[in-house]
Design a protein that fits this description.
The complex is a heterodimer.
Chain A (H helix, E strand, L loop, with lengths): L10 E5 L26 H14 L3 E5 L9 H10 L3 E6 L6 H10 L3 E6 L4 H8 L4 H13 L4 E7 L7 H10 L4 E6 L4 H5 L1 H4 L3 H17 L5 E5 L2 H4 L14 E4 L5 E2 L20 H7 L1 H5 L16 H4 L4 H8 L16 H12 L17
Parallel strand pairs in A: 1-2, 1-8, 2-3, 3-4, 4-5, 5-6, 6-7
Antiparallel strand pairs in A: 8-9
Helix pairs in contact in A: 1-2
Chain B lengths: L7 E3 L4 E5 L4 E6 L2 E5 L1 H8 L6 H11 L6 H13 L3 E3 L5
Antiparallel strand pairs in B: 1-5, 2-3, 3-4
Classes of the chains: A alpha/beta, B alpha+beta.
The complex binds iron/sulfur cluster (2 copies).
The site of one iron/sulfur cluster has 14 residues of chain A, from helix 13.
Chain lengths: 368, 92
């Protein structure tokens, strides 16, 4: 036995549904969306939130899919605040009006995060696969009027990165509190679309300079978060969630519990379900939470690397998607024997401009 | 030097919280959290619409012999810089 105490999770990501009226081509949801229609009911989510609070979770992220398509979303928010959790909601904000916003406020929602795809309404609507720009704007302004702290989240990629100055100006005009400039993470649908989404080095350098310029001149009250994409800028990988099973857990719409929301794409892993086990049981005993906790699982070059407790060998999903081996060193790392794959992906993206593949959710009963 | 805050209130979305699992005072906000020490939590819990001077007076009463003014201004300035505390509505 080791005597380091087991860490306790700080954050729970609750993907309450994968249903969504939008079709973002970088969506992190799994590709086989039709397999996940068997959603947890209200009662089970409430139980999960209470168990999460007892386990030590502080921040709850209500996400999806589009969390607002759940009819019981107000009950879920009430349960979260009743359990003492700090509740964040990530939404596309196309199915919310002033009335619903007020109800969410009353139910105790703490923080409202809206995703925007682009500053040009036509481009936003094309990327989302549905007219949505105007509704997003109304939702942001409405949420601000009600006193919500609002974060605007814009996922950046080749097709919108050149408008980063407009993105910042829009965030300022809408008076949001935070702007998250998030470069696409290449998992889920985004991995399929990598060659169409990957920006060029020139685009990234210009975007970076623009953000630095705004920061130097004053951001106008908007807290700007901008993390450069690892494919181009990092010699070492990001510390994905400080490793699996350390600070965070994720519950999928059908109750499966994952150490990371995209882990489901990795075949051969077994995930426990909240229908059968308590969250505490899962956190402490489920093999998938133990297997990658700490540094014991690591292969070389990580095992003997002095950064192993800094980046924990990087992202497991990225390692799997790029190398086929979930225990491999994240290829972003320049010490990885697979590091050449990063250059190859950039090369592929530079040579090609393939069409985007949009997230689709086949109708129930449709093709399996 | 920025003006010291006259009437500190927590920014929207910033919440004081007692974590009974970790036995900790916390200040929680979108995407983050800071752990508060004893004096920190005492200050934060008094950011409720009273003035900074009133807040200091309460602390002096609670901790006789302490001269908290300097620490209070510094701590509030730090929280304000991070956007967690702001100037509340002027009272008359
Ligand atoms: S990324 Fe887009 S498609 Fe995916 S869940 Fe979010 S809003 Fe829906
Ligand atoms: S070898 Fe492993 S631990 Fe070392 S920097 Fe690379 S990914 Fe991190």
């Amino acid at each position: 036995m080791t005597d380091t105490p087991l860490p306790r999770p700080l954050a729970l990501l609750a993907e309450v549904t994968y249903r969504c009226p939008l079709q973002c081509p970088y969506c992190s949801n799994p590709l086989e969306l039709n397999q996940y229609r068997d959603e947890l009911d209200t009662e089970t989510w409430v139980r999960v939130f209470n168990q999460a609070a007892e386990l030590g979770v502080v921040q709850l992220h209500l996400s999806g899919g589009e969390p607002l398509v759940r009819r019981d979303i107000l009950d879920l928010v009430r349960a979260a605040s009743g359990a003492g959790l700090y509740s964040n909601m990530s939404t596309g904000a196309t199915v919310v009006d002033g009335n619903r916003l007020e109800q969410l406020r009353e139910a105790g929602l703490d923080h409202f995060q809206v995703s925007l795809l682009d500053t040009l309404p036509e481009s936003n609507d094309r990327l989302a696969g549905a007219p949505s720009f105007d509704r997003k704007r109304e939702a942001v302004l409405g949420a601000k009027r009600l006193g919500f702290p609002v974060t605007l989240n814009v996922v950046l990629h080749r097709q919108n990165l050149d408008r980063i100055a407009e993105v910042i100006a829009l965030a300022q005009a809408w008076k949001v509190d935070r702007l998250e400039l998030a470069h696409t993470q290449y998992t889920g649908w985004a991995f399929k679309n990598r060659a169409a989404l990957m920006p060029t080095r020139g685009q990234l350098d210009r975007a970076h300079a623009e953000v630095e310029r705004v920061r130097a001149e004053g951001t106008g009250g908007v807290d700007i978060q901008h993390v450069l994409p690892d494919y181009y800028f990092e010699r070492f990988p990001k510390a994905c969630l400080q490793g699996w099973g350390m600070v965070s857990m994720s519950v999928a719409p059908d109750g499966f519990v994952l150490p990371c929301q995209t882990a489901r794409e990795i075949p051969g892993l077994e995930f426990p379900n909240v229908r059968e086990h308590s969250l505490e049981d899962i956190w402490e005993r489920a093999p998938i939470f133990q297997r990658f906790r700490g540094t014991g699982w690591m292969p070389e070059p990580c095992r003997s690397c002095d950064r192993r407790e800094i980046d924990f060998g990087g992202c497991r999903c990225q390692a799997f998607l790029m190398t086929g081996d979930v225990t491999a060193t994240d290829p972003i790392c320049e010490l990885s024997p697979h590091h050449h794959l990063v250059a190859a992906a950039l090369e592929e993206a530079a040579q090609n401009d393939p069409p985007l593949l949009y997230r689709v959710m086949p109708r129930a009963g449709g093709a399996v | 030097m920025p003006q010291p805050i006259a009437t500190p209130v927590l920014a929207p979305g910033t919440r004081y919280r007692w974590d009974k699992v970790r036995n900790q005072h916390q200040l929680v906000f979108p995407e983050g959290m800071i752990v508060l020490n004893e004096p920190g939590q005492a200050i934060v819990q008094l950011c409720d619409g009273r003035t900074t001077d009133e807040l200091i007076a309460v602390l002096k009463e609670k901790y006789p012999g302490a001269e908290p003014a300097g620490d209070v201004h510094e701590f509030l300035g730090h929280l304000a810089k991070r956007g967690l505390v702001r100037e509340g509505a002027q009272r008359d």
